[in-house]
Amino acid sequence: MSFTKLNRSAATLTKNRTEGSISPFSGMCVTCVDGCIGMCEIGKSAYRAAEVLYPQPFGIITAGAEKEYPYDLSHFSIMGTAAGAHGCEADSDKATFEKVTIEQKIGRDKSIKLKVPFVLGGMGSTNVAKQNWEGLAVGAAISGTILTVGENVCGMDDDSEIKNGRVVRSKDMEMRVGLFKNWYDGYGAVVVQANVEDTRLGVQEYALSKLGVEAVELKWGQGAKDIGGEVKIKSLKKAQELRKRGYIVLPDPEDPNVIAAFEKGSFKEFERHSRLGMVEEESFMKRVEQLRKAGAKYVFLKTGAYRPADLARAVKFASKAKIDMLTVDGAGGGTGMSPWRMMNEWGIPGVEIWSLTYRYAQQLTKQNEYVPDIVYGGGITFEDQIFKALALGAPFVKAVDMARSPLAAAMVGKTIGKRIDEGQIPVYVERFGNSIEEIFVTAPELKRKYGKRFADLKPGAIGVYSYFTRLSQGLRQMMAGNRKFALSYITRDDIAALTKPAAEISGISYVLDVDKDEVAKILKG
Q1: What CATH number is given to the structural domain containing 180?
Q2: Which of 95, 304, 455, 465 could make an SS bond with 221 (beta carbons 3.0 to 4.6 A apart)?
Q3: Which residue ranges in the chain fall short of pLDDT 50?
Q4: What is the pLDDT of residue 392?
């Protein structure tokens, strides 16, 4: 059985000519015929070359890996119970799911309060994130969770003011931080992430000193790729400016031959790439100290799906530096723009890397060492997955990281808002009504809470809030079924592995072995 789909994907706008007969190991049509116009990835690469590396069309999509990994969260089942209650009196009139609290506290001093245990991961300079930022930022703020401003925002901002190689003002960053802070009510936080270029530009120091940001995140990588960030640039002038700012831009926008080819229309987009970060303990510790001296109240670290030794470094370095939150992102999650084959074929998938993280955190605990609050990320979208991830990493995992799904909610909310304004509501949606307050079921609640200010809430933000409301109630129902009325009561025993290999990988009990000792006592009694 092949876990991979080769040579054709909706992500690269390619397909096989002989869709019913495909070689399983090469992905090529069983009969590759002379005269084909090249609909597959090989054929398209014959005339568009490196363009076919990336999901398309860039700027209006996000992409998620389509590789079928051997194990995922569906290989575990939630173990409900009919007896007792934790965190609530065991009384049918009192132990209802509405009594479940999913609020969380994050950080060394637990002073970041969250209304929900799912946070928005870093979404940076890609067009699709920027175009939907108001929905994401305001939606996160009114939901009471963490919003992460991703990499390259200042570097990509046409209006950034840069003096002596350091950013002194960025309208884009001001907008991104400001939207969250304008709706902040004591829950959550806005976090500014940095890669190599951001660090050289002094992005985090700027955010700390000028924008009132208190939390920053060091970025080693993400689950979607093991190289730096990429975007497409349609403007020659901007490509040249980004090269001056220190980015890698391909092809060289200063080369006269390249300029001539671009102006002739031989290609229409430049690629902007970020540099690879180089992890080293001494420089990492030094950077954490620099950020704290610059005013950072909270310092986070995000690492990608690298090999186990790199994960061990992340856990150990985070422990030594007393990091407030460590995010571990499994392979195959999602992206605004990552090389498509890389996204499908590199890294440790979620269940495996999360299981390793648990083991490493457990070892540090046995050594009486500090373990930061941990967040799991990588394709998590619904309440059952959130519960399973929290259980898989209990007691170390405090929340899950999400990006593509909140962005999808923001995009849908925005689109419905536009259709309402245009009077062109799709039939599928129109059955619920023809106004914001009729279609968005959370609108009346938000209107009561914000009063006149409700008019300033964009449909994209309401979309994110509504999606998070669904997740919140779904998660509380899952927890009530397990008789766990607060997140701190969730344990690894709350889930079971459906296969023995999944049990071996994760350390979670195989479903037929769950409660063995208790079962024996019950039956003997």
Answers
A1: 3.20.20.70
A2: 304
A3: none
A4: 98
Residue finishing a domain among 273, 307, 326: 273
Question: For residue 353, what pLDDT is reported?
Answer: 98
Contacts of 346 (CB under 8 A, 6+ apart): 225, 226, 305, 331
pTM score of the predicted model: 0.95
Residues 192 and 94 in one domain: yes
Which tokens hold the place of 137?
Answer: 């930022």
Q: What are phi and psi of 166, to 5 degrees?
A: -125, 140
What is the predicted pLDDT for the residue at 58? 82
**CA gap 397, 495 in Å, rounded:** 15
For residues 314 and 165, state if they share a domain.
yes
Residue 510 burial class via C-beta count within 10 angstroms: exposed 0-12, middle 13-18, buried 19 and up: middle
Crossing angle, helix 459-481 and helix 383-392, to 10 degrees? 60
Please report, in angstroms and rounded to a whole number, the separation of the first and last CA atoms in the chain: 47
Residue 386's identity, in one-letter code, is I
Tell me what pLDDT residue 409 has: 97
* Euclidean distance between CA atoms 438 and 238, whole angstroms: 43
DSSP lists the bridge partners of residue 219 as 302
**Cα 511 to Cα 305, 338, 498, distances in angstroms:** 28, 37, 6
Closest by CA position to 197, among listed 171, 174, 225, 230: 230
Residue type at 429 in one-letter notation: V
- Computed from CA positions of residues 105, 106, 110, 112, in that sequence, does the dihedral angle turn out positive or negative? negative
CA 507, CA 51: separation in Å to the nearest integer?
42
Task: Give me the sign of the Cα torsion angle 337, 471, 76, 120.
Answer: positive
Q: How far apart are CA 372 and CA 396, in angstroms?
A: 8
| Tokens found for residue 298 | 């909270």
248 DSSP β-pair partners: 273
How far is it, in rounded angstroms, from Cα 282 to Cα 287?
9
pLDDT at 1: 64
Q: Which domain holds residue 174?
A: 69-229+279-420+428-525
How many whole angstroms separate alpha carbon 87 and alpha carbon 332? Answer: 36
Which residue, among 236, 147, 244, has the nearest Cα to 192 in the 3D structure? Answer: 147
Do the domain assignments include residue 2? no
